[in-house]
Each structure stands twice: as structure tokens, then as C-alpha cells.
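Design a sequence for this backbone.
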């Protein structure tokens, strides 16, 4: 069954080694690592062609990624300059800002200093007790807390949890 091309490749009257069509013009393609003589229909399975396609897709993705990174950089610069959160919280994009490293301790101490139990403060701020607990346990990122939760805690307790550096 296996037939080895001696070079040429386009002998008329060959049969396709993939679909078995006889009397067709075949061409030499690389399928799953094997060199086969196939008809033009089956030539679409050519791994070499697929690889070229993928690499051009990848280039396209790289271009898009680079563009996205540029956009993100511009966005970050804009946000750093703006007076964050005061200008109306955007709940569609309630991103957690960069927090200071010991924000958990700052929140806990401020809450206790203000004489609130965890649940009391959560009620006062109209946030989930679990969210407040996550903040006090340093799990703000893992818990997926929004910037609005942080802003509410900051405002109520008169503390700053955002790393402005
Ligand atoms: Zn074929």
C-alpha cells in the first residue's frame, strides 16, 4: 500500500493514498508525520499547510495581544491620575485596586477601634459579612472582592487601603 515518491510527485493516473480515489492527480503531502501521495481533496489535510495556517493565526493573536497590552497601559495610566472611586463607582467594572500589603490588619484594627463586630460593620456597610471577613483575612483578591466594597470600608472607617505608589 505504501508508495514512495521518487521525486516528481505529480504523475497522472495515480491513486490517492488517503481516500483511495484512482486515476487522479496526486500531490505529495505530510499527514500526521507520514509522506503520502493524495488527491487534491485530501491535500487539505496537509499538516504543513495547517502548521502555516496556525502560525499565521498565532501572529495575528500576538498582534492583538500587543494591542491589548498597549490599551491596558493607557488605561492604567489614566486610572492612576484620576481621583479613583470618588467619581462614581462603575459597577460593571468593579475592579479591586492595588491594596496595601497589610490591608487586612488595617481593616481589623480600624473596625475594632470603632467598636464594631464583623457582622455589625457588614450590616452598616450593606456588604456581605463574608466579604468583610475576606478583607480582614487578606483574601480580597481570592474572594473576588470589588473595588466598591473596599471603597465603602475605607470611607466608613476613615482608612486608606489602596496602594497609591
Ligand atoms: Zn483523496
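Sequence:
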Amino acid at each position: 500500500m505504501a508508495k514512495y515518491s521518487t521525486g516528481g510527485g505529480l504523475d497522472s493516473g495515480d491513486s490517492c493514498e488517503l481516500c483511495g480515489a484512482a486515476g487522479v492527480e496526486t500531490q505529495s503531502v505530510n499527514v500526521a508525520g507520514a509522506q503520502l501521495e493524495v488527491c487534491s481533496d485530501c491535500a487539505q489535510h496537509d499538516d504543513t499547510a495547517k502548521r502555516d495556517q496556525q502560525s499565521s493565526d498565532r501572529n495575528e493573536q500576538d498582534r492583538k495581544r500587543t494591542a491589548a497590552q498597549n490599551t491596558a497601559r493607557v488605561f492604567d495610566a489614566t486610572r492612576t491620575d484620576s481621583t479613583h472611586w470618588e467619581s462614581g463607582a462603575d459597577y460593571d467594572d468593579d475592579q479591586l485596586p492595588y491594596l496595601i500589603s497589610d490591608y487586612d490588619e488595617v481593616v481589623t484594627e480600624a473596625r475594632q477601634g470603632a467598636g464594631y463586630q464583623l457582622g455589625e460593620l457588614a450590616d452598616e456597610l450593606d456588604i456581605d459579612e463574608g466579604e468583610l471577613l475576606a478583607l480582614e483575612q487578606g483574601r480580597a483578591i481570592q474572594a473576588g472582592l470589588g473595588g466598591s466594597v473596599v471603597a465603602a470600608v475605607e470611607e466608613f472607617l476613615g482608612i486608606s487601603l489602596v496602594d497609591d505608589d
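Residues 47-81 form the longest helix (35 residues).
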